[in-house]
Each structure stands twice: as C-alpha cells, then as structure tokens.
Amino acid sequence: MTNVKLWNNSYGITLIVFMSAKESDLKIQAQVILDAIAFTSFEQCQPLNRRFDNISRSPGIYAIRHKTERLLYIGKAQNLRSRFSGGHKAFL
C-alpha cells in the first residue's frame, strides 16, 4: 500500500511525502514524488503547521519544493514527523 501526502506553508514551501510499507518500492516512490512535484500546484497542498503534527510518524521519502523556485531537497526518514519537528536545513 502506498500513499502520497502534500503540505504547504506561508513561506512558499511544499512538502511532498510518499509512504510505503515496502523498502523495495524505492524506484516507484521516486517516480511518484517526481510526478507530484511536477504536476501538483502549491494551492492543492494542505497547510503545513509549525509543529508538523499533521505529518505521519511513518517512514517515507519526502521532497521539499519552493512555491516559485525549484526543488530544494529529497530525502528519506524513519519517522517523518520527527525529521521535520527537529529542524530541517531546507527551512532555514
């Protein structure tokens, strides 16, 4: 089972998260993320709050995109919420 979630914030940052039950889905995950980055507008994303409490604690691959600029970062995390609540260099 796979799942894509999208959030945005007032600074023009979009966070795209792809969660999967299988580690073997990495190629598929990467393609889904790239498609989401390319074809999803900033306005279609859910609001991203400062506490990141609306992000899953699941493992997953994520991408961070600026509203008007470009892709800022692609990464993976064992706990997505912890990855962002602890700070992320893309938000500096």
Automatic annotation (TrEMBL):
Domain of life per record: Bacteria
GIY-YIG domain span: 57-92
InterPro entries associated with the record: GIY-YIG_endonuc (IPR000305), GIY-YIG_endonuc_sf (IPR035901)
PROSITE patterns: GIY_YIG
SUPFAM superfamilies in the record: GIY-YIG endonuclease (SSF82771)
Record's protein name: Excinuclease ABC, C subunit-like protein
